């Protein structure tokens, strides 16, 4: 098995811009955007299909360590996407250069170093959120895309 990440010619910010335009989300649209396959995860959840992927190296040194895509089984829903980040540190000021109107939408409660401070931006298509975990609060840990239904 090859342990080296797949490569994607986009930067993190190009990828974020691309993922915002792939609504409603489908497995195929996300696979094309990230240049990597997603696998369906078996679940007892009757409401959503769960897909996972990751280990994709972006051009700017950022690594997509995990992708979590959720698509509703029935009815109209745009899906939900979380992209976990590793590799090159992306500090908050870098995000603020792209999203000037961030609001704090989540704060750690002291139960785990996995808890995060989350900053969100409301966009015409939905909300994008940037999470900074307590274990490494200076570097971006994940980006969540929550489209409007």
Please describe the structure with a list of short key phrases separated by commas or semicolons.
149 residues; alpha+beta; ten-stranded mixed beta sheet; 16% helix; globular
How would you briefly describe this protein structure?
Helix content is 16%, strand content 39%. The chain is an alpha+beta fold.
Structure description:
The protein has 149 residues and is α+β, with helices and mostly antiparallel strands. It has one domain (6-147). The protein is 16% helix and 39% strand. It is built from three helices and ten strands, in the order E-H-H-E-E-E-E-E-H-E-E-E-E. Strands 1, 2, 3, 4, 5, 6, 7, 8, 9 and 10 form a ten-stranded mixed sheet that branches. A hairpin with an 8-residue loop joins strand 9 (126-133) and strand 10.
Shape: globular
Question: By helix and strand content, what is the structural category?
Answer: alpha+beta
Termini gap: 39 Å
- Given as residue ranges, the uncertain stretches (5+ residues, pLDDT < 50) are none
Give the DSSP E fraction (strand runs of 2 or more residues): 35-45%
Number of structural units classed as domains: 1
Q: What is the rounded Rg?
A: 15 Å
The count of β-strands is 10
Fraction of residues in H or I helices:
10-25%
Enumerate how many helices there are, as a single number: 3
Mean pLDDT: 94
Largest sheet: 10 strands, mixed
Topology order in helix (H) and strand (E) letters: EHHEEEEEHEEEE
Protein name: ASCH domain-containing protein
Organism: Variovorax rhizosphaerae
């Amino acid at each position: 098995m090859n342990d080296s990440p797949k490569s994607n010619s986009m930067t993190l910010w190009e990828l974020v811009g691309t993922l915002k335009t792939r609504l409603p989300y489908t497995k195929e649209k996300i696979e094309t955007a990230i240049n990597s396959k997603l696998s369906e995860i078996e679940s007892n959840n009757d409401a959503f299909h769960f897909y996972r992927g990751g280990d994709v190296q972006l051009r700017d040194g950022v690594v997509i360590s995990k992708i979590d895509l959720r698509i509703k089984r029935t009815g109209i829903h745009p899906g939900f996407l979380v992209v976990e980040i590793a590799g090159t540190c992306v500090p908050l000021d870098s995000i603020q250069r792209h999203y000037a109107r961030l609001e704090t939408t989540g704060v750690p409660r002291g139960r785990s170093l996995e808890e995060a401070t989350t900053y969100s931006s409301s966009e015409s298509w939905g909300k994008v959120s940037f999470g900074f975990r307590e274990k490494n609060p200076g570097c971006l840990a994940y980006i969540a895309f929550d489209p409007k239904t």
